[in-house]
Design a protein that fits this description.
The strands form three sheets. Strands 1, 2, 3, 4, 5 and 6 form a six-stranded antiparallel beta sheet that branches. Strands 7-9-10 form a three-stranded antiparallel beta sheet. A two-stranded antiparallel sheet has the order 8-11. The chain contains eleven helices and eleven strands. The protein is α+β, with helices and mostly antiparallel strands. The longest helix is centred in the C-terminal third of the chain and has 28 residues. It has two domains: 116 residues, Phosphorylase Kinase, domain 1 (2-Layer Sandwich), CATH 3.30.200; 239 residues, Aminoglycoside phosphotransferase (APH), C-terminal lobe (Aminoglycoside 3'-phosphotransferase, Chain: A, domain 2). The chain binds 2-acetamido-2-deoxy-1-O-phosphono-alpha-D-glucopyranose (GN1) and magnesium ion. The site of 2-acetamido-2-deoxy-1-O-phosphono-alpha-D-glucopyranose has 12 residues, from loops.
């Protein structure tokens, strides 16, 4: 494997002498390597090399163009504030011919970034303060992009959080039953059918103009933010493939889904799965501290709902992929997607049970000046 990687390296503007490529097994979509180069003075230059999953991202050119525009915008914003942006934003390392990606003869798309050193992407929150920090970073990301023209961005995955359209796709998968798995899924399918209207509420409000369209991250999973090892500040938002026009509610909801849960999304012990209200509160606090003045009253009001919507949507996405025969997400066991779907359903149930408390928490921080 390393040999294949080594053949790619001369195509990029990496500096120093190549030493090592380590595969990073994070993320359910792309394939990622951490590259270590050595400079003549002995110091390290570190990079991230990634193969874009073109089953998921049909328009890798649009993806890279979006990322380049957005990261440059953020870099400029930090520079205007006098902030050292080197570890605060991803930068695309271009190819030797100046492109944003390298396309191989076998039609694979590879891209490279600066590596954010001395920082960790956590799959699970260990301390509420880290989650407040993550929230601040996602909120800041949103805030720094308020003056970015959303219309310039390609929709890299059309209808990514269009929950209503995803419901239609889910129904089509059930009808097609291409992997012959539907017969055992009565309770899971019923779970989603019962929540169809609730799940569509955010996207219908967006389409009706009751919620503003913003430039959003759309994949604010907790391991998509880097926490500094020394200071525990959230320093950099990563995984920018899905940055495109959307709703702030998608970002809030997905962060709660992944970060405020009492178990990771793959945990097969569903009795452990629930929402931790202390973490929900920490995130609400951190997020609103950055965006309270930007969000409309309707957006703030719908924040608790967004957590239920995105978690149900994620349950539906995992179940749809299981029904389709596991085409989209990387899996490690044959029933991995089913376990994930059931896990997310358990999380939705707990959010439903604690919904009034979630709403009270949001009201408290919205009122805080
Ligand atoms: C994927 O690549 P990763 O693991 O950050 C997915 C997200 C899902 C997540 C669930 C482009 O994110 O939408 O919420 O898995 N990304 C894409 O683990 O579909
Ligand atoms: Mg990721």
């Amino acid at each position: 494997m390393t040999r294949d990687i080594v053949a790619l390296l001369p195509h990029f503007r990496f500096e120093g002498k190549f030493e090592q490529a380590l595969e990073i097994n994070a993320g359910n979509i792309n394939t990622t390597y951490h590259l270590i180069y050595r400079r003549p003075d002995g110091a390290k230059n570190e990079y991230l090399l990634q193969r874009i999953n073109t089953y998921v991202f049909k328009d890798p050119v649009g993806v890279m163009r979006n990322i380049d525009l957005v990261t440059r915008h953020i870099e400029r914003a930090y520079q205007a504030q006098g902030v050292d942006s080197r570890r605060r934003v991803l930068r695309v390392i271009s190819t030797t011919d100046g492109a944003l990606f390298h396309r191989t003869e076998s039609d694979d798309y590879w891209r490279a970034y600066n590596f954010i050193t001395h920082a960790t992407a956590y799959d699970r929150i260990e301390r509420p303060e880290d989650f407040r920090e993550a929230a601040r970073a996602f909120g800041e990301f949103q805030r720094l992009l308020t003056d970015f023209p959303a219309a310039e961005l390609a929709e890299t995955i059309p209808g990514f959080h269009h929950t209503a359209r995803r419901f239609t796709a889910f129904q089509a998968s059930v009808a097609a039953d291409r992997a012959g798995r539907v017969k055992d899924l009565g309770p899971e399918i019923a779970f989603l059918n019962e929540r169809r209207d609730m799940m569509s509420e955010v996207v219908l409000a967006l389409e009706a103009g009751r919620l503003p369209v913003r430039v959003t991250h759309n994949d604010t999973k907790i391991n998509n933010v880097m926490i500094d090892d020394a200071t525990h500040r959230a320093i950099c938002v990563i995984d920018l493939d899905t940055v495109m026009p959307g709703s702030a509610l998608f970002d809030f909801g997905d962060a709660i889904r992944s970060g405020a849960a009492t178990a990771i999304e793959d945990d097969p012990d569903f009795s452990k799965v629930g929402i931790d209200l202390t973490l929900f509160e920490a995130f609400t606090d951190g997020f609103l501290s950055e965006v309270k003045d930007i969000l409309t009253p309707e957006e703030i009001e719908m924040l608790p709902l967004s957590a239920k919507v995105i978690t149900s949507e994620q349950a539906m996405r995992f179940l749809t992929d299981y029904i389709d025969g596991d085409l989209y997400y990387k899996i490690r066991t044959p029933d991995h997607n089913l376990v994930r779907a059931r896990n997310q359903m358990a999380l939705v149930r707990d959010m439903e049970a604690k919904y009034d408390q979630m709403r009270a928490i949001v009201r408290k921080y919205a009122a805080k000046s």
